[in-house]
Backbone:
């Protein structure tokens, strides 16, 4: 492939924090204005502080945030001329700053986490280009990785399942592999690190969560909050020790994506085939971007895109390539893209942090860095990149900021492990339920037949409407659901 070396594009350059300071070494930091409209000049940008506009005030989530805060304003980072030429026209990074009753500031992306990631992919790359004197080939590697990150987020292997209610946790009889396995909760939930203790079921989990919510003075906690707190309590009883960065990365990946599909070739053959597929994927993206950006999203991530089929249909020296092989290669590339984006987010958000009119205090910086700066406990990723799992991790993060003493890293890793186990249990149960439904249709069974069984209470208020009660027989296992 002309103009693109796979080895350079697919391996992020190692950053020596002692030599590359991003925007940490600010040059000529100058405060310009006063009151609410302050501007600060840093090396790669200027921050403008503004009141909320009518458009922002109309958003429900901002209204709720304003009610819970003493003050809310918008901080807009305007790029310096030095990097403006490498950015889209009119590029700005807009963050919402909420000051709580204790005077501490918290920053939220005004365009949401997805918008922030897209902005940092562009803004961070522009900063890195100047810091590292990147050539066109290296810049394209980062651009391609952002597109591949978006691609894998839309693939079926990406986990989007939430566990916010009883129905998300329970398994109906027709979806059970084992008759006594009635929920998707982890087998070790409720036990300590020695395996002592009784496993928690759904009701036990919510009862523990309810006790914890009372200790934290939550008024009328939702069912999702009870589940969140119950899982947190379980993880505190049995924190997970992970002793290497590689294992942490594997844990993070398992909590975000299903494992790559199995491929037929042996490992040695697969490495060669994957290399050729990678070349074809990057070549296709490069040619499309050079030709036109119009319709690019539809071509790559649209609901009717045929990108995988397109790559599989190319001619390969190693022989025919299946769509399953392409999926596997895409998932590998998509996971590597996380490190590229972490690189860009770190550069952009450090620039934003260092350009603030008022320097962050210790507590503010700890929270800011936890969300926007890569963390060792998250496998070198910032929390914003694994935002899908925030409902699972939120209780642990907030407890640490309240000053609670516990093994935070072990608890977070156990919570991620819980999610991975639960989502796989849920998927397996859903597959069995789908097979059961298809078999029911083929046999002409009525799927809207219900029979209340006191030995197997259902979620909600337990009301079940009986349309028609089937004749009982010994072979009618599970059909009454």
Residues:
């Amino acid at each position: 492939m002309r103009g693109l070396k796979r080895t350079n594009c697919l391996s992020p350059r190692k950053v020596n924090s002692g030599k590359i300071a991003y925007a940490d070494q600010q040059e000529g930091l100058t405060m310009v204005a006063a009151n609410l409209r302050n501007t600060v000049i840093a090396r790669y940008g200027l921050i403008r502080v503004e009141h909320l506009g009518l458009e922002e005030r109309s958003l429900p989530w901002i209204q709720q945030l304003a009610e819970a805060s003493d003050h809310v304003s918008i901080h807009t980072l305007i790029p310096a001329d030095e990097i403006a030429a490498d950015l889209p026209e009119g590029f700005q990074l807009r963050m919402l700053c909420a000051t709580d009753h204790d005077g501490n500031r918290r920053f939220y992306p005004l365009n949401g986490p997805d918008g922030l990631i897209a902005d940092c992919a562009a803004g961070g790359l522009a900063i890195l280009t100047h810091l590292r004197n990147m050539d066109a080939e290296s810049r394209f590697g980062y651009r391609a990785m952002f597109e591949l990150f978006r691609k894998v987020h839309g693939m079926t292997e990406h986990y989007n399942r939430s566990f916010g209610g009883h129905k998300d946790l329970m398994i109906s009889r027709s979806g059970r592999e084992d008759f006594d396995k009635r929920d998707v909760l982890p087998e070790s939930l409720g036990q300590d690190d020695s395996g002592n203790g009784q496993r928690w079921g759904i009701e036990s989990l919510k009862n523990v969560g309810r006790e914890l919510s009372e200790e934290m003075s939550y008024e009328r906690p939702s069912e999702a909050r009870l589940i969140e707190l119950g899982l947190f309590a379980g993880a505190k009883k049995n924190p997970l020790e992970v002793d290497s960065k590689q294992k942490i990365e594997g844990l993070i990946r398992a909590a975000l994506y299903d494992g790559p599909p199995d491929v037929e070739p042996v490992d040695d053959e697969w490495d060669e085939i994957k290399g050729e597929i990678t070349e074809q994927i990057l070549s296709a993206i490069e040619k499309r971007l050079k030709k036109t950006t119009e319709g690019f999203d539809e071509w790559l991530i649209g609901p009717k895109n045929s990108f995988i089929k397109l790559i599989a249909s190319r001619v390969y020296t190693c022989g025919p390539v299946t769509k399953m092989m392409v999926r596997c290669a895409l998932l590998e590339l998509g996971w590597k893209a996380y490190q590229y984006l972490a690189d860009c987010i770190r550069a952009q958000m450090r620039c934003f942090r260092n350009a603030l009119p008022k320097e962050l205090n210790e507590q503010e910086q700890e929270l800011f860095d936890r969300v926007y700066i890569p963390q060792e406990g998250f496998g070198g990723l910032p929390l914003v990149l694994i935002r899908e799992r925030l409902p699972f991790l939120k209780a642990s993060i907030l407890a640490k900021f309240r000053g609670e003493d516990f093994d935070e890293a072990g608890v977070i890793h156990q919570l991620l492990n819980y999610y991975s186990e639960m989502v796989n249990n849920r998927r397996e149960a859903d597959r069995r339920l789908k097979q059961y439904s298809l078999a029911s249709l083929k046999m002409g069974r009525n799927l809207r037949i219900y029979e209340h069984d006191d030995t197997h209470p259902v979620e909600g208020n337990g009301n079940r409407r009986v349309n028609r009660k089937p004749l009982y027989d010994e072979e009618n296992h599970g059909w009454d659901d």
User: Anything to note?
Assistant: Residues 1-41, 448-481 have pLDDT under 50 and may be disordered.
